[in-house]
Amino acid sequence: MALAHFKHYPSFDEALIGFTRYCRENELGIGLSHSQEALQAATAGFAGDEGTLKYTLKALFCTCTEDHDTFDKCFQVFWGTRKHTYNHKIQNKNTSNVVKRSNNSLVMMGFKPQGAETPKEEEEAKNVSGASAVESLKFTDFSKVSAIDRQVLDELANKLLKQLNHRLKRKLESTKQGQIDIRKTIRNNMSNGDALIKLARRDRKMERYRIILLLDVSGSMDKYSFFLLKFIWSLKSNLKQIEAFVFSTKLVRITEFLRQDQLDETLFQMSQNADNWSSGTKIGKCFEDFNNLYAKRILNGKSITIVLSDGLDHGQPELLAQETQKIRLRTSKLVWLNPLKGTQGYEPTARGMQAALPSIDEFQSAHNLHSLLELENILANV
Question: Could you give the angle at the alpha carbon of 273 between the alpha carbons of 102 and 165, nearest 5°?
Fold first, then answer.
């Protein structure tokens, strides 16, 4: 798998080869000959500045207009000095800036505060990172990601979420046609004898569901909240009707922040507003605020509500049970994704989780990439 930024390569030639591999991994039809031509063009002086390099490689790599957008995005990520993916942006900055950030900001960006890993976690991470197959990262618990090669995991997440979005788009397109209209089909094919050559279909009115996401960003969710936020952010490309909130001791609406083109910009905006990140948890109180301020306006029979939380609540279980039931009565389906459910031997014995369970339609895990991708069947109907 190609590294996704030129600064990770010791020389320009190696970076250029890495860029061709990166484009190929993002579904551009690039072969060995393209790599050779790119090196020849660079040797001939067509790599003097970023603009010349971009248009030279674009002429070599793109065979049709559909390739242009993909190439532009790949070039922006790989060769950009600022507008590349959030992870590389953080890595390539002066590390002292990262160290000076508060614990809340570090957690939001996917970093653990220094010294947060226990010896057991470090040993488990080493075992996972030593696995030969990148496929194993898809099944790696997010809580063990801190000591693993973050760049490889990030690239894998981007690739898998991109594939998920492609599949969702195809499914949504395939459902636009209505059922076959037998009478109309027969009338339209009367001149063809017994052969029904052209099938007529009834017009189908698409039912657009709204998806509402409530993400727990309390201290107990530190190991998972960043990856779950990345998942929420990735859904926006195909699921237009999204409402998103984060909560711990208070509820914050983040729908507007998801409209940023870059995830790092989304994180920056959230860091300025979600000041309760990595604090305690009062799920019942936050659900009460959600019901009072937003539920009547955004919840209806064509909405699916997804809660991403470990259910560890410091408030009153009775309040959580009451407010969860209110949400359930106003939405078509209530899904609860609990990262702890992916832990071997887990039982929902926490008071908060027990209080919420009677109102939940589906109770699933969200501890690794594989578990998030399994939500495709639910999201395909949105």
Answer: 100
Kindly tell me if the per-residue pLDDT of 91 is higher than 90.
no
Contact call for residues 181 and 201 (beta carbons, < 8 A): yes
Give domain status of residue 231, yes or no: yes
In one letter, which amino acid is 304?
I
* Structure-block tokens of residue 249: 């001791």
The model's pTM is 0.60
**Does one domain contain both 142 and 32?**
no
* Domain match, 110 and 45 both: no
Tell me which residue range forms the domain holding 76.
6-84
What's the CATH number where 284 sits? 3.40.50.410
Q: Is the pLDDT of residue 105 over 60?
A: no
- Single out the residue in 84, 119, 135 at which a domain terminates: 84
Task: Give the separation between CA 85 and CA 301, rounded to whole angstroms.
Answer: 37
Residue (of 368, 378, 374, 377) closest to 138 by Cα position = 368
Same-domain status, 223 and 264: yes
> What is the DSSP annotation of 167-231?
HHHHHHHHTSS--B-HHHHHHHTGGGTT---S--B------PPEEEEEEE-SGGGHHHHHHHHHH
SS percent in the chain: helix, strand, coil, step 5: 55, 10, 35
> Mind giving me the DSSP string for 286-299?
HHHHHIIIIIHHH-
The CA-CA-CA angle for residues 50, 52, 55, to 5°, reads 105
- The residue-averaged pLDDT of 233-246 equals 80
Decide which of 84, 116, 138 is a domain's last residue: 84
Instruction: Determine the Cα–Cα distance for residues 354 and 360; give it in Å rounded to an integer.
Output: 10
Question: Cα separation of 335 and 359, whole Å?
Answer: 10
How far, in Å, CA of 22 to CA of 5, rounded? 9
